[in-house]
Amino acid sequence: MTVKLLPVFQQLLNDPVVAALAQGGETAWFRGQPIPVADGIERSGISPATVADARARFQRFAPWFADRFPDTRPAYGVIESPLVGAPSTQRALSSLLGRDLPGRLWIKRDDILPVSGSIKARGGIHEVLQLAEQLVAGSFPLDRDGYAQVFTSSGVRKTLGAQGITVASTGNLGLSIGIVASELGFRTTVHMSLDAREWKKELLRSRGVDVIEHDADFSTALIEARETTASSPNTHFIDDEDSLGLFAGYAVAGARLAGQLAALEVPVDANHPLFVHLPCGVGGGPGGVTFGLKLAFGDAVHCVFSEPTRSPSMSLGVRSGLHDQICVEDIGLDGRTAADGLAVGRPSRLVGQRMQDLVDGYVTVSDERMKSLVSLLQDAEDISLEPSATAGFTNPWRILSDDAYLAAFGLDEDCLAAANHIVWTTGGGMVPTAEMNRYMEEGRNILLHTDGADAEVTDSAEIK
Ligand SMILES: *Cc1c(COP(=O)(O)O)cnc(C)c1O
Fold first, then answer.
1. Ligand 1 test: best mutation among 426, 430, 435, 436, most atoms within 8 Å of CB?
2. What is the mean pLDDT of residues 375-388?
3. For residue 141, what are the contacts with CB-CB under 8 A and spacing of at least 6?
4. 2 falls in which pLDDT band (50, 70, 90)?
5. Residue 332 needs a FRET pair 20 to 30 A away by CA distance; which of 55, 74, 112, 359 works?
């Protein structure tokens, strides 16, 4: 592939990782030296109190969720997903990849999070609740027991109905925000990028959400949405490239996961490392979850981001040091991927810069690999995932073959045998059956015609 790049970007190709990203191949690179988590959190400039605040807000709204969303009732309105062991997948992948994975493989099932069936039910919903509280506080009594009544009362719905919420999305963020904002009574507008699936738009329209379709990628749709909103009165724009409200909502997952692991008597410490594998689009979801995990587990948790080879915006932003000043088109990639949830060309301003001392590695994954994993997961675990949600599944094996990383972090054989790997499955629960069947069939064909989509991986280079 020869691409004509601007001189300023051409220079970046001297870096082997950026060069590999530009070639569209699978890459993996990991932190060269540990940075104490306490320092990383300090340097992020993000206060842990932000996360505690979000956690309390979800608690206050739990009675309202239990009232309005039946799928939250079994947990009394708390929006949380199960953590499940995945021995069948671990076996299937070990045999496909030709190497046994020591330790245990788990799946954190955000694909079946209540309300909207994706990880966006954490961040997206949180920012909507934050705004609703702000607008109502002062005019209506807000004691915890009254949340279900207050937010269904006609007075409050009228107040919120005079307010607009606008968001740009590749699909799932719009779905989460649209479903909850419309339920609260907000005038809701969702700008969808060209990757967004049709059923997501239809579902939102059926709930009275105004869906605006863009024949452009996510980054462009977002700029247009931001500009239109600036001139609309009483309208709040939820900015996926730069939102602490979204970030804080995602971060609540950290303490929740700590509780789940403790209940299952899974130790996490220097001798029992925890690896968490997170699909990454703009970076808000994996960034927020990583922040929450580092708060909960400190240096014992390793967080690795996965992106599509055709749209590795976070890898590129962090590796080049240019963050949101560079997009995947600048190195000749088209950004088009079957992983629509991850089809983001320019990374989050908030996450790339502030979280760079806390993220341990970046991996890129081909569309073929993700598609084949959709089928593999269906067969091994009987779970239905969208392609984006599978992006982390082969990373544990990737880490295993990275001697430099293992040495730098003192991860010896005993440590790895006692390790736990959690793959975060970020979406799929609401995908219509016909669409799911198409994913499945495509994936099966790929599995049949390759040796498990085990493509050539560019050797890891260190971060810093
Ligand atoms: C949005 C999304 C992600 C990643 O979240 P970002 O905040 O965009 O990084 C991962 N998986 C799915 C299914 C998503 O919809």
1. 426
2. 96
3. 150
4. low
5. 359
Cα of 315 vs centre of ligand 1, distance in Å, is 15
Contact 24, 309 (CB under 8 A): yes
Question: Which pTM does this prediction carry?
Answer: 0.95
What pLDDT, on the 0 to 100 scale, is given for residue 272? 98
- Looking at residue 450, its pLDDT comes to 59
Residue 307 has pLDDT above 70, yes or no: yes
Please enumerate in sequence order all residues whose Cβ is within 8 A of that of 315, keeping only pairs 6 or more positions apart, or say none.
17, 21, 27, 29, 305, 307, 362, 364
- CB of 285 shorter than 6 A to ligand 1: yes
Tokens 């709930």 — which residue?
Answer: 207
Q: How far apart are CA 344 and CA 222, in angstroms?
A: 10
Third-level CATH fold of 7-48+80-116+250-462:
Rossmann fold (3.40.50)
Can you give the residue ranges of every domain in the chain? 7-48+80-116+250-462, 65-69+119-244
Q: Please give the class, per CATH, of domain 65-69+119-244.
A: alpha beta
Q: Matching CATH topology for 7-48+80-116+250-462 and 65-69+119-244?
A: yes
* Best residue among 388, 431, 439 to mutate for probing ligand 1, ranked by most atoms within 8 Å of CB: 388
Round to whole Å and give the CA distance between 305 and 39.
Answer: 20
